[in-house]
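REVIEWER CHECKLIST
Item 1: Sequence provided? yes
Item 2: Single chain? yes
Item 3: Sequence as submitted:
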Amino acid sequence: MAEQVDVVVIGMGPGGEHVAGELAAAGLSVVGVEAELVGGECPYWGCVPSKMMIRAGNLLAEAHRVAGMAGSARVSADWAPVAARIRDEATDDWNDRAAADRFTGKGGRLVRGRGRLAGPGRAEVDGEVFEARRGIVLATGSKPQLPPVRGLEDVPFWTNRDAIAAKEPPPSLLVLGGGAIGLELAQVYARFGSRVTVVEAMDALIPMEEPEAGELVAEVLGREGLTLRTGARVARVWHSGDAFTLVLEDGTELTGDQLLVATGRHADLPALGLDTVGLDPGARWLPTDGQLRAAEGLWGVGDVTGHGAFTHVAMYEADIVIRAVLGEPGPDADYRALPRVTFTDPEVGAVGLTERQAREKGLRVRTGSSRLPSSARGWIHKAGNEGLVKLVEDADRGVLVGATTAGPAGGEMMYGLAVAVQAEVPVETLRHMIYAYPTFHRGVEDALRDLRG
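Item 4: Structure as written out by the authors:
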């Protein structure tokens, strides 16, 4: 017989853990289902440990920038403290005891295993069935998307998890994928001594962002010694002895000691039993309404919804679902000002629509841009001051619908522009603000001036 509970949360990543914990703390009987680690990708293999690696690599780069500005400095890269810090953060080599105790301490019940739907209001975990009086929440995240490359499934390639867990950098590294994850890890490993080659099928790096941002990052990575191959498709791959070989469609062969595949992520919907509630298991993402409801008594949170594979999206959606399950009123999800950051050096922050996306929506677009090196703060900063600001305006409404801020603090600079996009602050109002001098943020004022021109 099915066990009666109030809520079942399948997937205890950041969003799922937040939903399950808050509902349990509110007094509901909650079963949280997790097949791997409570907390999900972010604290163990994703955003947190990768930024620890990036922080370490940035410190090395800053030390090399001392010359000509503050005397001289001699540094040598050492991966050991990086690997040790990651293992410490992941709690004794990827142990989720603290996170699990945090959830059960709020009154929730943790069930280890793979959960799936077993009909309306019913969930199954390795043969154990739960009937949820209030509903079920799917928060199963995503997994690496492998490109259709002949031989790839037969070789011991790295995913982001392997790159995070590595105890030492390889002498050479091939990176398949020039998006955010691929570039962040590529730059880190290059700064710790690996000879890195990035292969991207699209014609630009970070292809989902503004082309100017991709060009800037490509210029910096090239100066740092990385080999970049854009517009390059891989036909096949093999592994022999200790080396990987990529064969491009034009016949070029690339070799490396290790291969990292970072070509995007996808939701594993076929494993969730969606057909038992009348939903399409062959869909790319779980379709949801403004309250993240996929069907009566069924909600989705995080990567599985397709609104962005970011922890901040999962947490934002989790709050909406918590209110919905508790029957509390609240606004629908609004993704107009969705922020994102590629944590390369320089960082690339972005919010809302790119120029191309805005034009594809049929908007009458006006853009303005500025370069950070031409600003007073850029001149003062000197070394590593590469950066830009690009604004995308809906000219008919006179409001920003998107912006990109790349530079030494690109992710932080983007905050004010995210507020402007979300609140639809008139561009004329932004022009008449006071921008602190000398800051990188004054690049926004320069871009607004260019927007008017």
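Item 5: Key structural point noted by reviewer: Residues 47-64 form the longest helix (18 residues).
Item 6: Recommendation: ____
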